[in-house]
Write a structure and sequence with these properties.
Blueprint: E1 3-6, H1 11-15, H2 24-30, E2 35-39, H3 48-61, E3 64-68, H4 80-99, E4 104-107, E5 110-111, H5 117-137, E6 144-147, E7 155-156, H6 159-166, E8 175-177, H7 178-184, H8 192-206, H9 208-212, E9 215-218, E10 221-224, E11 227-231, H10 244-252, E12 258-261, H11 267-279
Parallel strand pairs: 1-12, 2-3, 3-4, 4-6, 8-9, 9-12
Antiparallel strand pairs: 5-7, 10-11
The protein binds zinc ion.
């Protein structure tokens, strides 16, 4: 079953007087949504007790929690110590989302930062090949980690690169951020056919099962010559992309992804909008 939800708390969550993410699962379920993404973007700082309290609420209200790993992970870093720090950040993210009852962690693979792109990609492949055994040895074989397609051209993460990374291990699933893809292609996602090209590529490259159960980030994003500039809301009418044609592709290909809104402040509202668009098909 396809699932929809917000990444983090909407402005309306706070405006209604809520203060803690422990209150988020109930709030999200009351809005008819299914999933909630907790961001460890600035680091895994949540305590075990708080994480377990969120997990208990999530369980009570039938909301599944996913997590976003720290943004400073950079598996392409030529410095081994810095590059390999990413192992710890992913392990910490899996541990914390596990306390919340979740089993899925999204992450950014790395950037070019002065490297030849091929070298940057090979560094990522090498480290995430090492990591698949660490992940298993540490007891996280049942957790899914999702390398994300990225919005800035200098970041590693076009569709082909993400497919290569996912093919390292059976537990690596794609996180396709369609706003990012639209930004890095200067508005390349407009029609049903544009989205279908991406989905066909994923099915052929990463396989039917991983595409069916992939992670999806969807928001409208402002972009320039170098790609992503900033996240917008669904009220934007300039940059896009539009969700409706993608919803139809999901429907026609019988896909059941985790679809998260990363809108700037209206994540829950825009996630509900996407859910309504999908179920009106
Ligand atoms: Zn991300």
């Amino acid at each position: 079953m396809i699932k929809f939800g917000p990444s983090g708390n909407s402005e309306s969550f706070y405006n209604e007087g809520h203060k803690s993410t422990v209150e988020a699962p109930k709030w999200v379920s009351e809005r008819g949504l299914d999933i909630y993404e907790y961001s460890f973007g600035k680091g895994v700082m949540i305590g075990e007790n708080t994480a377990r309290a969120i997990g208990a609420e999530a369980d009570k209200y039938g909301v599944e929690i996913t997590a976003h790993a720290p943004y400073y992970i950079n598996f392409s870093n030529p410095d081994d110590e810095k590059g390999e720090n990413g192992y710890r950040y992913l392990l910490e993210s899996m541990r914390a989302v596990g306390f919340m009852g979740g089993r899925r962690v999204v992450f950014h693979s790395g950037t070019e930062t002065g490297l030849n792109r091929d070298v940057a990609v090979e560094n990522i492949i090498k480290r995430l090949t090492v990591f698949k055994d660490i992940k298993k040895a540490e007891g996280y074989e049942n957790y899914i980690i999702c390398p994300e397609t990225m919005g800035k051209i200098a970041q590693i993460g076009d569709v082909d690169e993400i497919i290569r990374i996912c093919n390292i291990d059976e537990s690596y699933y794609p996180c396709v951020d369609f706003g990012h893809l639209n930004a890095r292609t200067q508005g390349g996602l407009k029609s049903y056919d544009d989205y279908e090209v991406v989905i066909k590529k994923l099915i052929n490259g990463a396989g039917r099962e991983k595409t069916e159960n992939m992670h999806v980030h969807f928001s409208k994003i402002m972009y320039g010559a170098k790609g992503e500039i900033k996240h917008l809301t669904f009220s934007d009418e300039i940059y896009g992309p539009e969700f409706a044609p993608l919803a139809k592709v999901f429907y026609d290909y019988k896909l059941s992804p985790y679809v998260l809104s990363e809108s700037a402040g209206t994540q829950a509202e825009d996630a509900k909008n996407m859910k309504d668009v999908y179920f009106a098909l």
